[in-house]
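It would be a great kindness if you could assist me with a short task in structural biology. A protein sequence and the structure tokens that stand for its backbone fold form the material at issue. I should value your view on which stretches of the chain appear to form regular backbone elements. The record follows directly beneath this note.
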Amino acid sequence: MSVRAVFMAFPAALAAVAGLACLTSAAASNGGFDGLPQIAQATPPAASPPAAGGGPANTGPERVGPAFSPKAFCEERVARRIGARAYLKSKLDLKADQMSAWDAFQKVADEASTKEKARCAALPTEIKEPPSFADRMNRREQMMKSRLESAEAVKPTLLALYDKLSPDQKAVLDRPMMGHRGMGRHRRRG
């Protein structure tokens, strides 16, 4: 055998041995070989008992995770809006002559949040069964009416604040906010 053939065969053999070593350790770690060290694994969860009536338990794709809480969802949405206002105030870096306009906006926005929290408190804490189409439409309508009422209440003070902002500050408000489902949501950033 020539020296060149040995030098060419050596890297291929080394790669094969390394690959075999990886496969062996992977097989040992997932229980592929008897008698070799294995990584401990948790025992699989016990099967859920069948639902009343002898049918399958409510664990299939139609029921995943805990029951939905409209109250918690609503409260989370209000908390995010309140947080977004604090973030916006920080981003705007308001000057002393702009603070009175911000305070007027903040007062009306806080009142709207208080009303929204009261609506949230009236919602159910848990829904175990999916609501009917009519129930979903009614809830959506109520939510939209509530959002419209809040927007109408806040709009005059927010526009008055906007008029007092510098062009750079207005640019902060002109950009769609993260998570906002407006027209800017699908814009590509380059």
